[in-house]
Amino acid sequence: MSKLKLATAWLDGCSGCHMSFLDMDERLLELAEFVDLVYSPLVDLKDFPDQVDITLVEGAVASVDDEAKIKKIRAHTKMLIAIGDCAITGNVPSMRNPIGPEPILDRAYIENATLQPQIPCVVVPKLLKVVRPVHEFVEVDVFLPGCPPSADTFHTALTAIISGEPLDIPALTRFGA
C-alpha cells in the first residue's frame, strides 16, 4: 500500500496547532509509516503539491494571500481538515473585525513606529476587511476544534482517518479545549 500524502498549512493564527501536532512526539514516527509529509511550514517546501490526500489547515483567512492559499489548497486536496478554533470560527484573529484593518495597520506601523512610519506594501499582504473562518471560502471535510487540539486529539483523529475508522470528534475535543 502506498503512503498517503499529508500536508499542513498555516494561515492567520499563532502556530499553536502546529506545535500541538509536533507534541505527538514519537507517535509522528508511527504516522510516518502511513503518510508522507509533502508540504508544511515544518518542512519548508514552498509550492503546494498538485495532489494531496489530507491537508490540515490552521488559522483564519485574514489576507488576500490567505484567501489565495486556501483556494489553491482546496483545489489540490482530497480531504481538507480545519484544525483549531481560528480555522473553524475565526477566533483570535477575528477580534480585529469590529475595528477594521486600516486602524490596525495605522496603530502598528504609524502610531507606534519610531523610525520610518509607513504602511508596508511589499512584505505584509493586503488584509481583508473581515477575518473569516476557512469554511466561508472553501468546503471543509472535517472540523477539529480546540485551541489548540491536543496531541492526543491529532493522533486519534489522524489514525482513524488513515485507517478508515469512524471519527467521534465530540468525544475527542471541543472549542477552547
Automatic annotation (TrEMBL):
<dbReference type="Pfam" id="PF01058">
    <property type="entry name" value="Oxidored_q6"/>
</dbReference>
<dbReference type="InterPro" id="IPR037024">
    <property type="entry name" value="NiFe_Hase_small_N_sf"/>
</dbReference>
<dbReference type="InterPro" id="IPR006137">
    <property type="entry name" value="NADH_UbQ_OxRdtase-like_20kDa"/>
</dbReference>
<protein>
    <recommendedName>
        <fullName>NADH:ubiquinone oxidoreductase-like 20kDa subunit domain-containing protein</fullName>
    </recommendedName>
</protein>
<feature type="domain" description="NADH:ubiquinone oxidoreductase-like 20kDa subunit">
    <location>
        <begin position="14"/>
        <end position="160"/>
    </location>
</feature>
<dbReference type="GO" id="GO:0016491">
    <property type="term" value="F:oxidoreductase activity"/>
</dbReference>
<dbReference type="InterPro" id="IPR051349">
    <property type="entry name" value="Hydrogenase_assoc-protein"/>
</dbReference>
<dbReference type="GO" id="GO:0051536">
    <property type="term" value="F:iron-sulfur cluster binding"/>
</dbReference>
<keyword id="KW-0560">Oxidoreductase</keyword>
